[in-house]
Specification:
heterodimer; A: Rossmann fold; seven-stranded parallel sheet; 7 strands; B: nine-stranded mixed sheet; two-stranded antiparallel ribbon
């Protein structure tokens, strides 16, 4: 599905698992553009699962590019092993490490259920491939299964060419691919 | 699942990628150290030019090396660099004025963070990083540690150039913090002429070539002849 079709059919807003395929070097820019679209343009609530870097770096990007953060909750699995300080905020769940798959799943499910019970929202994962050093294939499959069964849309940014087995796993579970080119959304 | 978790980007330096499993690990920090005239800035520019060809954004921080006007006059003769990319795909930030007024490492890091968050580069250069040590008041190593961590968390591949005196191998404090160390040096041949050499001293997560390899610098940039010593 192209990005234009995604916008035209309001795909984001429908429950399901979506893969946004971008080159690994463009993940940060893509993440920011997606947050602009979801938080600023659509005004949705959301959960950002941060397993690739401390959430504070995404928070700074949002502040710099004037993306409203009031409706976003961070579930962060990296800060406690990064050396970066965590600012105290009620919109942040900190895990001890990315190894804590059960807590990661639990917090995500909890927030997704709250969003589904109100006006809906999104879950955005930054990023699935970053879990590879910490989890077995079985564990990742289990985590993806949990994301697939959330009552909200779940967006995974992934470099399909670089991580074909992950992409195939997601596709086999019914995830829909969205063709996206960084720069598609004006920041 | 693949066991190779590291993603790699092309260096842009002819002959170098073959020495390091296809490119620099991404994200990572790379120290390119050498004395005057060994090609550090040329290396950094060639690296950014590769990023332009790959559709990536570059951010070039200069410290107290040379002002923009002079740097641009000299680099535009290189064929590998598209002059139009400066100011667009390659943003240039002169840290000199900031360093003259402000010596607080936290404020310097915050300024660098601010520029990175604005431009969201995939490739960053700080040229040279070594002069900062003499200028900031607080612990230099702590600053380098924070800088290196931040650069990687911004998801970029960063080249930090380090000036050394001819008898000094590399800036020691920086070498412990970064993921990779590449040395550029000048040596004398048996005929008495000076030649340039490149050596990969360290590169985390990479099976890399070792030893000094002959390199040449022309208007086409740096060319490394792996195996020629």
């Amino acid at each position: 599905m192209s990005w234009n079709e995604t916008i035209a059919h309001n795909v984001f807003g429908k429950k399901g698992l979506y893969i946004v395929d971008v080159r690994f070097t463009m993940m940060t820019k893509t993440l920011v553009e997606l947050l602009v679209h979801l938080l600023k343009e659509k005004g949705q609530a959301g959960v950002l699962i941060s397993v690739d870097r401390p959430y504070v770096f995404v928070s700074r990007l949002m502040e710099k590019h004037k993306i409203p953060a009031g409706k976003l909750v961070f579930v962060d699995a990296v800060t406690n092993i990064s050396g970066e300080p965590a600012l105290s905020t009620e919109k942040l769940d900190l895990l001890a490490s990315p190894f804590c798959i059960n807590f990661l799943s639990g917090f995500t499910q909890c927030h997704a259920s709250k969003m589904a019970a109100s006006s809906g929202g999104f879950v955005l994962l930054d990023n699935l491939a970053a879990l590879l050093p910490y989890m077995t294939e079985e564990c990742i499959k289990k985590f993806v299964g949990i994301l697939q069964n959330l009552d909200t849309e779940c967006i995974i940014v992934l470099d399909k060419e670089r991580h074909r087995p992950l992409f195939d796993m997601l596709s086999a579970g019914g995830a829909r691919e969205i063709a996206f080119k960084a720069g598609a959304i004006a920041i | 699942m693949a066991q190779e978790y590291l993603e790699r980007v092309k260096s842009g330096i002819n002959g170098l990628d073959e020495m390091m499993q296809g490119g620099f690990p991404f994200p990572s920090t790379v120290l390119v150290a050498g004395s005057a005239g060994t090609g550090k800035t040329t290396f950094a520019l060639q690296f950014l030019a590769q990023g332009v060809r790959d559709g990536e954004q570059g951010l070039f921080f200069t410290t107290l090396s040379e002002p923009t006007q002079w740097m641009l006059r000299f680099v535009t003769h290189f064929k590998f660099l598209d002059k139009d990319s400066f100011g667009r795909q390659i943003k240039y930030v002169d840290l000199g004025p900031f360093l003259r007024k402000e010596r607080d490492p936290e404020k310097l890091l915050a300024f660098i963070d601010d520029q990175i968050s604005e431009h969201m580069p995939q490739r960053i250069v700080i040229d040279p990083v070594s002069v900062i040590g003499g200028m900031i008041k607080a612990d230099y190593r702590m600053f380098l540690y924070d800088l290196s961590t931040h650069l990687k968390n911004w998801r970029a591949i960063s080249i930090l150039t380090g000036e050394v005196l001819p008898q000094e191998p590399y800036p020691v404090e920086i070498s412990y913090i970064v993921d990779s160390v590449i040395l550029l040096s000048l040596g004398l041949t048996s005929e008495g002429s000076r030649r340039k050499y490149l050596e990969i001293l360290k590169m985390r997560g990479t099976h890399h070539a070792t030893g000094q390899h002959l390199m040449d610098v022309s208007e086409n940039g740096i060319l490394v002849a792996m195996g020629l010593k």
